[in-house]
Design a protein that fits this description.
The chain is of the alpha+beta class. The chain has a domain of 76 residues: 2-Layer Sandwich (Alpha-Beta Plaits), CATH 3.30.70. The chain is 30% helix and 17% strand. The protein has a 5-stranded mixed sheet, covered by helices on one side. It is elongated, with a radius of gyration of 25 Å. The N and C termini lie far apart (64 Å).
Amino acid sequence: MDLVDLAWTTRYPRTTDAEPEATMRFRNGTVTATAVTDRARDVLIQHGFTSTKATREYTLPAGFGESDALGAVVCAESHLYTLGASVRVDLGIPTLQDIPPAPARRPATPATPSPDQAHRRSR
């Protein structure tokens, strides 16, 4: 998938901490979306998303290929943006905040040489 096409959809920094009207997520080869408002719902449906059993949750049909899915997300995001709606596109790529810190390493204690090794070095 060419994620460069989506790079411009991250219109940050956010001006508020409010939940966006629409959130689209790439996860394990599927694209899902959440619409908080009716206008976000209408735009998602217009661009190929279908309703799921969960309230305000949408997904792209299984028949969509990568290129079609990418196009649908880019079109829906730009359409919502032109309407003044807040949108978040989650590419499913971990950020620094998502990656736990590495466990602290214990300092390596140098091994003491065996008596044979110490004797060889003292020549």
